[in-house]
Amino acid sequence: MSRQVVRSSKFRHVFGQPFKADQCYEDVRVSQTTWDSGFCAVNPKFVALICEASGGGAFLVLPLGKTGRVDKNVPMVCGHTAPVLDIAWCPHNDNVIASGSEDCTVMVWEIPDGGLMLPLREPVVTLEGHTKRVGIVAWHPTAQNVLLSAGCDNVILVWDVGTGEAMLTLGPDVHPDTIYSVDWSRDGALICTSCRDKRVRIIEPRKGTVVAEKDRPHEGTRPVHAVFVSEGKILTTGFSRMSERQVALWDTKHLEEPLSLQELDTSSGVLLPFFDPDTNIVYLCGKGDSSIRYFEITSEAPFLHFLSMFSSKESQRGMGYMPKRGLEVNKCEIARFYKLHERRCEPIAMTVPRKSDLFQEDLYPPTAGPDPALTAEEWFGGRDAGPLLISLKDGYVPPKSRELRVNRGLDTGRRKATPEASGTPSSDTVSRLEEEMRKLQATVQELQKRLERLEETVQAK
Asked: Looking at residue 39, what DSSP letter applies?
């Protein structure tokens, strides 16, 4: 009688643990828009989530520590004139966030430390170039101030945020139909896209060339999502011809057949993949699901190993994923998700059970830090570089806040960022404030004179 050998892995017993009620964000009105993005973005300072807003598009930004019930009058980022569809924090500046909207614009915002005290209506820069709604925004992983946006006009634009210019354009000749997902490679040299024409493409964006493509990675008609994973592989999620959800792993050099293809269930929600390059674990979160599945990717067959599944009672409207430098390493936390309910945002910690409280070097190899490896000019000029790695052994210490520098001297024909948005008042604003100050001083002097006359009258009586 043969005994089945269980595969050895330090991640076999990873488990999900929801935070306590007082560590959640209560009474937030999550967006009702039907769009397959996470609706939530997180970094070590802030959590941002797309909310319902009357008369335009808005999203909420809260400091991580500001848990509990959220005031209904809390100030929001509300500069868009139509619903916001996607948001993304800059990986090199924890105070900068980009948003794409149905109003066809991409806006870049700077959030002050401590969060918003007043509604934020003026972005640092507005990027205008799409002719239909913008559903995807993604920052370059290693180059500073490089932002990608994809719209329902079937166009991908790569922006230099410092100048407000669209430096690269991948037009409808590359993607003839709606773009479902875009993902940067780890060094930012390539992008991986999935499209409604049932093709997954690997593209060199600076040359505008398709390096490789796969027709119908999944036979079904529902949306496919694709992400880069380790060692030149990509992972796709989609549907079979019988509408069963699938996950597949592909070698980018041999896309004829998948390295692994697994059928999961018959739910209808699109699976959003989140890949952790430090542990080679991919997490699958479906909109409308009440579970998070996670798999480990290895270099030997069968390549994709199911680890476990975190389940809860309530379904998720969206999901945010914390970068590794925002985790609690002394608790062996290897991932943290921010699950959006209808009126609540609930953090969920993914933990490896260990008895020791000491730093576990095997769980936390050097990870991507907050410093960019390249400038925008170097990357657009053809250079590539992997992320600058940092150790989490002594905990992550966030750097001092950096100002987002925008060159306002270049007239790009687009709406320029207003100086007030970056914290530097214009000369017109200074003159207006000085005039108001003079009026206030004159009013104070008049009141002082009236008070003196009143005192004289009282003394005379």
From this structure: B
